[in-house]
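Exercise: predict the fold of this chain.
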Amino acid sequence: MTAPVVVWFRNDLRLADNPALSAAAQCGAPIVALYILDDVAPGDWRMGAASRWRLHQSLASLTLDLAKLGVTLTLRRGPADIVIEGVVAQSGARAAYWNRLYEPWAMRRDGEIKSRLRGRGLSVESFNGALLFEPSRLRTGKGEPFKVFTPFWRACLAAPPPAPPLPAPVKLCAAPALDSDALAAWRLLPTKPDWALGWDALWRCGESAAHTQLAAFLAARIGEYKVARDFMAQYGTSRLSAALHFGELSPRQVWHEVAARAPETGAAFLREVGWREFCHHLLVVNPQLPEAPLDRSFDAFVWAQDDAALKAWKQGRSGYPLVDAAMRELWTTGFMHNRARMVVGSFLVKHLLLHWKEGERWFWDTLVDADLANNACGWQWIAGCGADAAPYFRVFNPVLQGEKFDPDGAYVRRYVPELEALDAKYIHRPWEAPDGVLRKAGLRLGETYPRPIVDHAKARARALAAYAAMRGALPTRQAALAKSPGAG
């Protein structure tokens, strides 16, 4: 009997356009399909609770898809290097294939595993199954990695297009089944309290569901995407970020589907896929990205310490309806609209002067689409210390953002039921409503809904002073934090 090949699934939980699986199928050897839950990650980057919920759904779907081809998905938990060597020894495999990850510790670990297995005489191959272009491929005219998104995206569009997606194997040869953990035994799902109650109805997970969702988006909403994506109450975005992160869908599949079905109207959407690509390229070149600002002058920034304000932000009790709606959307669905992510991020970093890493950690734990590269780049962009960063003096006004992108307050009413009966004129600024309007809406500020924890104008002035102090425009940086803005 031909010795088996181990196919190590990671963030590529699909059958189609899976280069590692396709290579194993082509070689004709019996396949050991393996997923390893390796909880070893440095610092704060062990998989968050919402991501663990999403992983459970994706693995359950992949298990069924592989079973239709006669292959059992083997689940093992522990340090990946130890686990995979054990599986190789137990199965008698003479080859191991996987698709690459780009988190810095995963790249180091995978390199060590590859060397050790090859040292034992195994054929070991890794493939790009997660990105449009390998990070080492795209360079500036000077041969350096890109630091700005727009020229990076131009280079992507000018390069030969990504290879067409690989079809799913129609037949696989299965190796004898190995001992496997039960998925339920990993306890990826919450128990009591079940904070994910109702998520099964919100999220359709797995490869088939991802393709159905992409097809529906391209058929019905791609033409309005460029404008509709900013309106938070509308279903104007694809909501495919989790499927891309866990690899139920590949970016190559998205690229070619958009090219085939929406070559003109899909440009704005494809550009967002490009931003995901850019974030991963940045992470490879800057492995410190989740921990340290790309603009190292921000090492001198004096961040505030305010546990009460941080708690209010997390709980959606800031007194700013748009901010609170977004934070409650996050808690109740595991997702947040992208426009809202920018607003709540700006509020945390600039209104409250709390460290961007506080937001990065909270998103990591609560987003079903939490992705190290995207999360780090997004928070550094908001803070003004990353690549293509929004200038620090750009402070999103949550009232004006709400009035522009949630004009009738539908998004706020959906997630902040205390304000449901409030007139649209005041839905984004309830503290300005006359007493009679508040009474009619059954609203008591400071009781049924909080007053703003900071005043926008004062908070903006404090943020600008802190930025100026960091740049040395004030005698002491501490002056920027000398007086906390009052509640308006």
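Check your answer against the key: Residues 131-166+208-285 form a domain with the Serine Threonine Protein Phosphatase 5, Tetratricopeptide repeat fold (CATH 1.25.40.80).
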